[in-house]
Each structure stands twice: as C-alpha cells, then as structure tokens.
Amino acid sequence: MGISSSLFSGISGLSTHGNAMSVIGDNIANVNTIGFKSSRTTFEDVLAQSVSTAAGSSQIGRGAALSDVDTLFQQGSFESTSNATDLAIGGNGFFIVSPVASETDYYTRAGQFRFDSDGYFSNPSGYVGRGWALDQDGNDMGTLTDIRLSAFTSPPQPTTTLQAITNLDSTADSRSVSLFSNGWDATDTEPIGDSAYAYQTAIRVYDSLGNSLDLTVYYDKASNEAGNEYRAGITDFDNTWEYIVVCNPDDDERVAFAGSAAQGVLMRGTMSYNSASGALQDMSAYVYDGAGDPTLPANWIPAGFSTDGYPQFDASFVPGVTQTIQLQTGVRSTSAGWDAGGAANIGAIAAGTLGTFSSTAEPQALASTQYASSSTTVYQTQDGYGTGFLENVSVDTDGIMVGNYSNGQILYLYRVGLAKFNNEQALNKVGGNLWSATRASGDAITGHPGENGLGSIAPNSLEQSNVDIASEFVKMITTERGFQANSRIITTTDNMLQELINLKR
Fold this sequence. Notes:
Helix content is 12%, strand content 37%. The protein is mostly beta strands and 505 residues long. The protein folds into three domains: 106 residues, no CATH class; 152 residues, no CATH class; 222 residues, Sandwich (Tick-borne Encephalitis virus Glycoprotein, domain 1). A hairpin with a 2-residue loop joins strand 24 and strand 25. Helix 1 runs antiparallel to helix 3. The longest helix has 33 residues. It is rod-shaped, with a radius of gyration of 40 Å.
C-alpha cells in the first residue's frame, strides 16, 4: 500500500467532518424555528484493503464515509400564545397542508395558522390546512378537504319551542270573567289592562328572518261566572287557571285576525293543579280552526301535539310564513292526544267537555306549580335565535374547530386532520418546515387527533424547535477536532512524501 493512500483517507475524514459541521450549523441556525426537527450525522468506515503481513493477510481501512443523516422527531417544547388558531401537536403526527387549489399534500409540525382574506386556514407561506367538514352534530362529512370559512354569519333559527315554568299564587282571586273574551282586546290602545289578569310572563322569540319579538303568557284564576267559556268543563275552580299566549297585535300577520279583537292571541286554555301538592297535573290548549270569526270561542279547537307530546300553535310573524311553536309548561301527553271528548269543538264545553289529557299526562322534571307564595317565573327559555356574526374560532384537543357567533351560537366548523407515516425518516424535506412523502416513507395514514396513535392538539400553542444547543456546541467541538486531526494526516503524509523525494538529490 502506498503512502499516498493516507492522503485519501485524510480527505475522506475532512469530507465527512465537513458535512457533519454543515448539519450542526443547520441545527443551530434553526434553534428558534417553529416545529423544526434537528438532524444528526453518523459515520461508517470505508471498505478496507487487504495487505500481506508476516502473520498472513490483514486489512487496512481506507477512511470514513457519511453513513446517514437522521431526523430527530422528539417532541419540542410548547410556547403559549394568544392566538386560538396557533396549534401544536402533542405526540405523533403532522398537520396536512397543500397549496390553494392543489391536490399535492405536504406535512408539517408548524401549526402557525390563521384565516386569510379568502377564508382559508393557512400558514404564513400560504399553504392551507386540511381537515374534515362537520355537520351540525359534529360528525365528519366527506373526505379530507381544505379548511375554509365561506360564510362568516350564522343564519337565524325561528323559535319552535317555548318553555314557561311559573309558580302561580294559590291565594289569588280571579280578575276577569275570561281572559280571551273579556280581558284581551287588540282594538284598544292597550290590548289588556293590568287589572284583567293575575300574572304574566314574557319571553323574546324569533321569526324566520331572525327578527326578535315578545310573546307574553297571561294567567288568571278561572272564573265561575257566566261568560267564562271554560266554566262548564271545570270541576275545581280553586285549582284551575286560565291562560292566553299572545304577541303584539302589530306582529300578528294572520289574515283572518287582521283588525279583530282577537288579533295577537296564539293559544289559550286552562291549567289545573293538584290541590294537595300544588303541582301542575293537566292542561287544555286551544287554537284557531282557520275558519270563521276568530273572536268566537266556537271557532277554536283543541291544539295539535308535537312529537314530544306538547301542545303547539301556529303563528305568522312574517307574511305568508307559518311558524309552529310548542308550549312546555311542565306536563306532556304520552299519547300525544286528548282524552275522549276533548277533541270536540270548544263550543261543546258548554255541555261539560273540556279538552285535557289527564289520563296520559306525564309531569316533567321542571314543572309549573301553584304554591301559596307570590307568582313568579321560575324558568323560561326558547330555542330560536337571530342572525349572528362570527366573533372568534376555537380548536379543541380533538381537533374540532367551532365558531362562536354574536347570537350566542357555537357551531361546528371543521376537524383538523393529522397524518403519520410508517417510516418518518424517509420523508423528504422541501423547505418551509414542510416534508413530502416518498416511496420509502409509505403513504400518509390520516386520522383524527388523539386517535390511532396520533397526538392531540394543543390550541393557543406552538411547538418550538427540538434543537439542544448545548449538545450542538459539544458536537461542534468534537467535529472541529476531528477535522483538525484529519487535516494533520494530510500535512504529515505530505512531509513523508517530501522526505521520500529527498532520497535522491
């Protein structure tokens, strides 16, 4: 073996240590890069050359070569931020991003996302995060798609359920012969006076356009005087109350009611209470039959039922639009029907028929009462809302993204998708904190955060670089010394060759 072969061994050492220093420099340069994963170099010896010795055949190495440059995917520390769309992955997985209107997917650990002017959920480089669109119940719809908000408003939801839970004072006296026939008069400046009822509760509801308006339920102890249309059907006047559900007459768009004294009355009926416990035990409910004079009790019939067994009425707050609302007071019919005789026209009440559902009545957990205390509204709610504007977006640990709107609604938007690979080391770095899949890495395995070995999402956080700068400085020292030692091999070999040349002078 010639002395000159030592030069090539030294050169191989210089080359490998030079590449190692490049990797160290790249790591240190990205010590503050979001989501950066550091790399390390490993060396291997070069194929050795066989030589003859007194002991037989031996081998002499020919230097070193770069074996591999590994990516270290250890978890980086998290930095808390004030941006709800800054996301970090706690565990395995990558965010899936792609250029706008492209089918090419890239993968990143940097979750610095925001919504751009076109509504895309993108990173600073303009790559759009991908995930699954969600339905109103939070279930995935379709396949992976670009996360994009195409609408920043929440459409209105008309009221379909009205719940009014009250306590009515058992010691109260009747103030009107009939709330409907004698108390309410829409043709007056004040449709009903304060002296005509014992208690009232109002609640704001919404029509199909998102307009808000007030519905009021008036209560009065049932009267045993002539002129009360319920009189013949009531057996216990001390524990029976009359009620009417009304809106402002100007809000009532039902054609048949226009200009009449009954305009604004949506439902009317009675509520009966248990004399011993004071709990609501039965009720009747009547609505306009759609024909004839609405001011006549004979043209009102027992109300229909919702699928849950609550009586319901039709309203029209927008011209030409019928809005059905169920009334919940604390008792429902398990058969969604009236007792025998109750389905007859209300005019039959004069003969002792009052539509009730006592035989199938089922008290609810929250029910109206009649106690010897001041009348009060215990609880009221409704399920409608007006138009809302998106105020902020938040992401949960399972990747579900929801929008918080000015109308108080919280709506499901998207679920952020994650991907993992069987061979992460074979991913190809393409710059910009991005990797792309290769044949060696295998296809991306996509899934929900927190499932199937994928990490969970940490909102309001960014994953920092996992570079350990102290370790890099130590590697820098050893690499520098290795480079110096290999350069010394070259200079020493050069001196030996010089001595060889000087043998002949």
